[in-house]
Write a structure and sequence with these properties.
The chain is of the alpha+beta class. The chain is built from 6 helices and 9 strands, in the order ααααααβββββββββ. The strands form 2 sheets. The protein has a 6-stranded antiparallel β-sheet, covered by helices on one side. Strands 6-5-8 form a 3-stranded antiparallel β-sheet, with no helix packed on it.
């Protein structure tokens, strides 16, 4: 039995979100730039979207890819992610891969990016995030400042900080760990 397929049922999460918003597949298609047949296949678990496609669907549904992934598996407390569980993404300056290291509805989300990703995409998460450079180098723009990170460097971003990043070396490998957007963070005064 395919462990990954059992654990990642993102199509049902996409369908639930679309229906909550009372949107048709045609509207989501228009907003995301993805075809109606492809979206239908995703919703029916016959196609697995790349992370970039999932981000486009999430944007069209007014949510995030992390939230859709979190809603994909509301149960399960133990999830093994094998080294070969990779999703290829189109775009960037070289071949790009992202590996979801924590799948399902959990308080913590982690992704490993290899190569570049959509550097023009700006992120703003509700909760905190940590970026750790495993190999290569990246540049992160946050709060109007540019940060150059090399192997072994990490950058912590509190919730609400707008940021974008890009690989500056072809062998870039970045670990991104984030607190799930569905978690209500405590402010410093209440801790």
């Amino acid at each position: 039995m395919d462990e990954h397929k059992e654990n990642l049922r993102v199509g049902s999460a996409v369908r639930r979100r679309r229906r909550q918003l009372e949107l048709t597949l045609a509207v989501v298609s228009r907003r995301s730039g993805l075809s109606v047949p492809f979206l239908s296949q995703v919703e029916n678990e016959r196609a697995r979207p790349s992370m970039r496609s999932l981000e486009r669907v999430a944007d069209a549904l007014g949510t995030t890819a992390v939230e859709l992934l979190a809603a994909a598996d509301p149960t399960g407390t133990v999830d093994l992610v094998r080294a070969h569980d990779e999703v290829s993404l189109a775009g960037g300056t070289c071949e790009t891969h992202v590996r979801d290291l924590v799948r399902g509805h959990h308080q913590l989300h982690a992704f490993e990016y290899v190569g570049d990703h959509d550097e023009g995409r700006e992120f703003q998460h509700r909760n905190d995030e940590l970026m750790y450079v495993i190999a290569g180098a990246v540049e992160v723009e946050a709060e109007g400042r540019a940060y150059r990170l090399g192997r072994g460097d990490s950058l912590y971003l509190t919730g609400g900080v707008r940021h974008r990043w890009r690989a500056t070396a072809a062998d870039a490998r970045v670990l991104v760990v984030a607190v799930g957007d569905h978690i209500e963070a405590l402010d410093a005064g209440r801790r």
